[in-house]
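Hey all, quick one. A colleague (J.T.) asked me to put the S-adenosylmethionine job into the tracker so the inputs and the structure tokens live in one place instead of scattered across chat threads. No bug as far as I know, just bookkeeping. Sequence used:
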Amino acid sequence: MRTKLSIYQKFLDGVPVYLARHYWWAYLWRPAVWFFDHQFIINLILFGQYRKLMTAAMAHIDKTPKGEMLQLTCVYGSLTPSIVNKIRPNVLHIADVSPAQLENVRAKIKNKNNILMTRLNAESLAYRDNSFSTIIVFFLLHELPQEARTRALAECMRVLDHDGVLICAGYNALPAKHFLYRFPVTRFILTKLEPFLASLWKFDILSALNELGRPFHKRAESIAKTEVFSSFYHVTTYQISGDR
Ligand SMILES: C[S@@+](CC[C@H](N)C(=O)[O-])C[C@H]1O[C@@H](n2cnc3c(N)ncnc32)[C@H](O)[C@@H]1O
């Protein structure tokens, strides 16, 4: 007897269950990859803040070491081509667990000389300790359940060099005074579409980084923060330090 599969189970091709279950329609289904990767759609999802977020992220990235850079997971829009063309890191590594996403970003980059794309789960990165001078995490943390988020950040602390830099862009701490949070309908829609966002709102990234860096003798300090859309979003640079 054949068991009927839920739609998401058809996407369980080596990706974490939470990604297939909650985001197949956004990142794994190929027509969706085409649909969402339009400036107009991304800007709509980010309440018109895409340009501001990109400008802030690029300003933070521009101040970081240009050695080995890791963009942890693909993103829609122009972030990756902008890093390649404007920041020009020595090497840009891009890791994502979705082949469709890696193919999509590959098609957007003309000069692929210094780009290395790898299919990896952010929770278990197959890179050596202390491999990267900079890691960029753009709107990923709210899409991971708390345990996966913790594992991904632990991996960032492990693979970042002792004087490396982590740049996180995404949702800021609980936006209790923001109209999108105060208005029950928008709060309901947001937390329905983004089932792990509520846990990120209460998650202290800096404390987590310091705790997770302890086994690697690394500490993190927030050295620059830009808030966007009345503090609903943020871009933060964390400086890593520690003994080799
Ligand atoms: C960066 S996040 C959100 C991006 C944001 N919505 C945008 O496009 O601007 C989406 C990406 O994370 C990837 N992803 C989610 N969980 C992952 C995991 N555990 N390991 C690796 N990639 C993951 C998805 O495949 C997708 O490409």
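Adding what we noticed when we looked at it: The chain is about 40% helix and 25% strand. The pocket of S-adenosylmethionine is lined by residues 16, 19, 27, 42, 73-77, 96-98, 101, 121-123, 138-140, 143, 148 (CB under 6 Å).
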